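Incident review: delayed structure delivery

Summary: a single-chain prediction request sat in the queue longer than the usual turnaround. Root cause was a stuck worker, restarted by the on-call engineer. No data loss occurred. The affected request and its eventual output are reproduced below so the record is complete for anyone auditing the incident later.

Affected input:
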Amino acid sequence: MTLDTNRIRSDFPILSRETASGAPLAFLDNAASAQRPQSVIDAISDCYQRYYANVHRGIHTLSEESTAAYEAARETTRLFIGASSRGEVIFTAGTTAAINLVA
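Output delivered after worker restart:
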């Protein structure tokens, strides 16, 4: 099986750019920040347009819908990683915040 790097690159809109010398842009600083594929950009845009509200903090429609979407993401993540319970899936702001929780 061959890795189709052109197909993978096409999922990331920013990688359609070129460097100042005209070479295809390559982004290798993923430890600091990762580029997003179009599917993630679309999901974030949908969230901002339709659901954006605090989760677990309100009884109004937007908060309830945001909470339901947040918990659905937790369940999807649980199934993907094979966690035995939803309590094993903890979302954090990033790697540093996650490490600080267990340090």
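Verification: The chain has a mean pLDDT of 93.
Action items: add queue-age alerting; document worker restart procedure.
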